[in-house]
Design a protein that fits this description.
6 copies of one chain form a homohexamer. By secondary structure, chain A is an alpha/beta fold. In chain A, 31% of the residues lie in helices and 25% in strands. Chain A has a single domain, classed as Ribosomal Protein S5, domain 2. In chain A, the strands form 2 sheets. Chain A has a 7-stranded mixed β-sheet with strand order 3-4-2-1-5-8-9. A two-stranded antiparallel ribbon of chain A has the order 6-7. The interface between A and B is medium-sized, with 28 and 27 residues. The complex binds calcium ion (12 copies). One calcium ion sits at the interface of chains F and D.
């Protein structure tokens, strides 16, 4: 039974936790990307949550983007040499894969490194490239329905996914605000509370 | 024959040993999470007991949670740089997997790091996330029956598993006290004797 | 749907990003090789984008060529000991393999190490050997059609692929300028703006 | 032919060598756990003898137990940082697995680290847990017959295996003395000559 | 098409590049072993070109032979601690395996380490052992035909392959000079220009 | 053809090379264990020759035995920290496995470490255990016939293989001298010229 429960949005109390939208074999779902830092003399990136190779690559990519843009993101570079980064995606029993949690991972890690909280009732989905470009992803309709069910109020998507939103019956979209973006910097501007 | 013996609760003499509840192909079972520390110049996390990948991830997650919350848990951070952590789950002939030993692993490691013993006749089952949230798990009825058979008196479960307990005939629950929790700090407060 | 969108050329604003031509199961495609450097005490080559072993070897080969020819390429050798090199090929959901991105990878890495931008509206395809020789690759017709669709104006190919161009209807080639090369130094001379 | 020869007890001349009892596809067998220490600047645990994963875990577990209890076992802790530990189980052509050599491995390693010889004509079988508890194992009847054939005089077993001994015809047990134990410290007290 | 083009001999301009003879599913072929050195604080042997395990072992063996015979080969031993060795075999799309490139690899690496060029229009095929013995290999007829087609003038073979040459129609051998050798030192004497 | 040639004994000119006897799918064969040392700041054991896991373990075991008995074997222990050990078994195209080259490997490595040559026209076959015990191996008849064909004059075997020799027609054994041993020290005494 726990495998199929539909989760609810859980507030923005935790730094380093961001709500993503996933499209699984049982339909749309929200999922949480959790990031945590801990002191380490030999810092690495630790990934847990039954993640496939492409999803693991998204996390590697996210951390590399952050390292290469530390100054712009206002992150103290010495953290990369002193803190282990752990990214976890509950729930361990469910295999997860694909690139669509890319922007969620960058946002979660940036939140953890800067200490900035994430905006309330916000979810997001989108692939990121190494230069920070946001790419469109699939399963938009199912993800939006899941976001509503979970009490999400704002959603960040790639601008190339706007056409997918326009195909959804407008009554389903009531109470949801959309942000269509093309660069990860727009995502971080919208998502992080400074 | 040893593969199918039903184990009994074994007391709380050992620091670092916590009783979990498992749901295997032969029904409910209690299992022991054993943690041991040993001096090491290059400390790692060693995992034995024929564990699958998801269960190994639970142990990685547990250690990372403890490292990131060392101050709150009253753990001397220098231990992480001087002590190897070994987690073992007897019995080696039986493959074990899944996320439901998560809270048991955190409790066992925290017991080992703090030196606090674990409450008598207590068992637990539940997945933990990186921010310390406790998630519901399956097989509750079978696990509760196994707990009774093993002379367990108190059980810690996720509050979302309360509905599973309410579906069990009350005569089966006689003599068992339940703790329904949502955060790992509640688990540690109940389980560790200070 | 995102799996089959046809991409457009995206400008030359980013140092370290070069446009390649790929031949996939769904026809010709342009792809972007993105390279990024970040400070590291133990620099490695990080490869993401769902790459197969042969494509990963192309990146290893590219970096080795650059290291062995640092002086000729005007690259400060100390960078190899202080900067992590990350090569990413969007889009993560699509497996990619083969040696034909070889010259694109060398160009992208050299752009990142030297800080030189890449010529506007240029794409390329070709295998490279360790001594810098450019080898012919397959799927030329499909790649050229994809280049036109994507608004590419100049294409670099191995001189042994000239015969493949001569077999394409000339109306298809209108507006495209070709460079036929045999050594990677010609590629870098054409591609990098100094 | 060598694959099926029945071995004999071989004396207790060698420190670090202990006789175990195994249950293989061709019946009961005695086997030798050989341990050897050698100086090393980067000591590791080396395992040979065509061992499966569970049997390798038994050796890891054994070494960890010894490290965590070095003081009680009277072992100089500096040895762990200067000596490589090699555990070998002849005969390389035969795959071996399972947890039942656990107590034999602890005894062999403790003999090697302390320099104490092992009692004459003694064999043993049993799984060990990280806290030192001895668990019952299978194939007891076949193992006991093999022990007699091999001229063994004393056998150490888990107390939970006593019932298996009681089911064996007493004439088969003539000349054999049994030790039923529940903790590894009892095993070491019986087995090591001080 | 590129997969089946027949290559030509390409001159001896590059130090570290040696022409070998291969026998593939599409007949005899020449192939190039390319070696390159680059400064490194932690030198390793990097192998690319879609090589199977046996061919990778040939490269490991070649480097070990050279290290063990550095003085005789007039190689500065400090190079082994400061230079990364990269061996590449174009073309990446074609899997390659087998021990018959052994002597070609030693020659290519020795050329790179000494800076000596390789004799013009020379090709070779043969397995090498760790003590430098040259062993016979298969596919001699097909390899010789490929050598002629590629404008090769001299071929080095194991003396035990002389019988295979004697079975080839003499008109096919016109214009080819053979060297039959039994030790790698003979190969290097013939191949390297001092 | 090279796969099935029957090799001949090749003299004892090379330190570190010892002749073994193998039993393959095509009958008995002699094989050469070649050992070479080379200076290294981070010495390892390198194994080549298309060896299976059990045969690799024999080499690990051999080196560990030598390290643990360095004093008795008159080997300067500092060599273990300064010299890389490479063991190769020609011919790379043929997969090899099994424990029966154990005593041959110890002899080859000891020859390399001490600089002592190996006795002329001598071959051997037998498994070794970590304490130096020699175990019997299979295929004795086929191996002995191969030894004769290869001009071997003396053979070292485990004393438990004496019964296998007694079953061979005595005319086949003419000109062969046998040494039946039970400990590796006897092998080294017979094989190494001091
Ligand atoms: Ca869920
Ligand atoms: Ca996508
Ligand atoms: Ca049990
Ligand atoms: Ca679950
Ligand atoms: Ca695309
Ligand atoms: Ca090609
Ligand atoms: Ca046996
Ligand atoms: Ca068991
Ligand atoms: Ca070719
Ligand atoms: Ca061969
Ligand atoms: Ca042969
Ligand atoms: Ca054997």
């Amino acid at each position: 039974a726990p495998l199929f429960t539909k989760d609810l949005y859980e507030g923005n109390d935790y730094i380093g936790v961001v709500t993503g939208l996933a499209w699984t074999s049982v339909g749309g779902e929200i999922l949480f990307i959790e990031t945590s830092l801990s002191k380490s003399k030999a810092p690495t990136l630790t990934l847990t949550g039954n993640l496939g190779n492409v999803m693991k690559e998204s996390a590697i990519l996210a951390l590399e983007y952050i390292k290469a843009h530390a100054t712009q993101l206002n992150i103290d570079e010495s953290l990369f040499e002193t803190m282990n980064v752990h990214v976890h995606v509950p729930e361990g029993a469910i295999p997860k894969d694909g690139p669509s949690a890319g922007i969620t991972m960058v946002t979660a890690m940036t939140s953890a490194f800067t200490g900035h909280k994430v905006k309330k009732a916000l979810a997001m989905t989108g692939e990121m490239t190494l230069r920070g470009k946001v790419l469109p992803v699939g399963g938009i309709k199912e993800k939006i329905l899941a976001a509503k069910r979970a009490n999400i109020k704002e959603v960040i998507l790639c601008h190339e996914n706007q056409k997918d939103i326009e195909e959804i019956k407008s009554s389903y979209l009531k109470g949801l605000k959309f942000h269509f973006v093309s660069d990860i910097r727009e995502v971080l501007d919208i998502a992080l509370i400074k």
